[in-house]
Design a protein that fits this description.
Mean pLDDT: 95
Order of helices and strands: EEEHHEEHHEEHHHHEEEHHEEHHHHHE
Structural class: alpha+beta
Number of helices: 15
Strand content: 15-25%
Shape: globular
Helix content: 40-55%
Distance between the termini: 58 Å
Strand order of the largest sheet: 1-2-8-3-5-4
Number of strands: 13
């Protein structure tokens, strides 16, 4: 596999040449800083809208038929929040020409351009019916958050800490604003994406440099953004809330902030800390809460790099709330005091190393690896493995002493004992 980066006037192309996969994958990413949360929502709606029709393929069904004609090509558009940035991206996958005996590559790239650069905008308006369909689907997805107790409890916990922060941002709290988004708002957002983004085009497959010509003269303008990707919460509050829910099981969520981290701590030590705390059935939380005391159905922890937060999630009966919280604090104190083993460290390392090695078996994961290196300065796989192997027990203990509880949130279940 070989990687090269080509600087065009208005964008960069990342060309990853490999004969490992039968398909070619193309990803076009538009990166912008988040200056307005409603803009994130508009881009979410555009993800739905752009796949409903173009000037050439006027319905979703026509787009689907074209994908079938291209030997089952796939195309999707996603929008995600990564720290202080918004990433709007199109990803397409299609068979290499040598398996189709046709000019599938050129046709597929033309199809990508049609979807992304020739939407069904007439007289500076999207089709009104398609806008309503896109908004309706989006609203249904957002309202469904309340039907998912795990997602709902995390959403409410984050809002409890610092509701104005990007960490806490969720479209769930913007239902009225979503209803008020108009057709012309979406048109403006669409052109803003094309004209005010940092654009990266990634191509992976058994291809040569000739494919680059297919991406000449795209209707986009250049921008470079070098703001920090990290958006740390700035609050001294420690909050606790118990909310009545309508679910069969109670959900407990605790949020801890990590402060004053070094680069190595941010990128590697924090992941090992979180894994030892609640990343497996051998974790401290699983043993203390479930195995030793039968207090919960599950207990896990996750590290959020961009906001440098540790979130602990527990499914339990509300009557076990106080004892569960107490034992979670005991587990963290034990880590602060060095009550972890070298074997704990090695298990965490092996888990992450195996996961990183699997990146190289998936073309989109490889693209995301290079984009993460470009956007967030995350190391490539070989460097990640080298650096995580350098983490010692003492490093985890030092990091454990940089953790601070910010929120405790319980979503109480109904009829738990019936």
């Amino acid at each position: 596999m070989t990687y090269s980066k080509i600087d065009k006037q208005n964008y960069q192309i990342h060309l990853i040449k490999t004969n490992k996969f039968k398909k070619t994958v193309v990803n076009i990413s538009f990166k912008q800083p988040i200056n307005n949360k409603i803009d994130v929502i508009k881009k979410d709606i555009l993800c739905n809208l752009l796949i409903l029709g173009t000037k050439k393929y006027k319905s979703r069904r026509e787009l689907e038929i074209k994908c079938e004609d291209l030997f089952g090509a796939s195309l999707n558009i996603k929008n995600k929040k990564a720290g202080s940035y918004n990433l709007f991206s199109l990803t397409a996958s299609f068979l290499n020409d040598k398996y189709t005996l046709e000019d599938t590559c050129n046709e597929s790239i033309s199809f990508i351009k049609e979807v992304l650069f020739n939407p069904l905008i007439i007289n500076n308006k999207f089709d009104d019916k398609l806008v309503e369909i896109a908004k309706k689907g989006y609203l249904e997805d957002i309202k469904s958050i309340q039907e998912n107790p795990n997602q709902y409890s995390v959403t409410m916990m984050r809002n409890l800490i610092a509701k104005e922060s990007l960490y806490a941002f969720s479209p769930y709290f913007y239902i009225n604003e979503i209803n008020n988004i108009q057709n012309n708002d979406l048109v403006k957002t669409y052109f803003d994406i094309l004209n005010n983004s940092q654009v990266d085009i990634s191509i992976i497959g058994d291809v040569d440099e000739k494919i680059l010509q297919k991406f000449d003269n795209l209707p986009i303008k250049a921008n470079k953004y070098n703001n920090s990707v990290y958006d740390l919460i700035n609050t001294n509050n420690k909050v606790e809330k118990i909310e009545e829910g309508k679910y069969s099981q109670s959900k407990l969520v605790l949020a801890y902030q990590l402060k004053s981290l070094t680069e190595t701590e941010k990128m590697y030590v924090s992941y090992i800390f979180s894994f030892i705390l609640g990343g497996s059935s051998d974790s401290l939380l699983f043993k203390k809460l479930r195995q030793d005391n039968s207090l919960c159905y599950y207990a896990d922890s996750n590290y959020n790099l961009f906001y440098q937060m540790i979130e602990i999630n527990v499914g339990l009966e509300s009557t076990n709330y106080d004892k569960a919280v107490s034992l979670i604090k005991v587990a963290i104190e034990e880590m602060k005091n060095g009550n972890i083993t070298d074997d704990d460290i090695e298990k965490a390392k092996v888990t992450y190393i195996n996961a990183w090695k699997e990146i190289m078996d998936n073309p989109l994961s490889i693209i995301n690896m290079y984009l993460s290196h470009e956007y967030y300065n995350l190391d490539l796989v070989d460097e990640r493995i080298k650096k995580i192997n350098q983490v010692k027990k003492e490093d985890v203990i030092i990091l454990a002493n940089k953790i601070e509880l910010k929120a405790t949130y319980l979503l109480k279940g109904m009829n738990e004992n019936e």
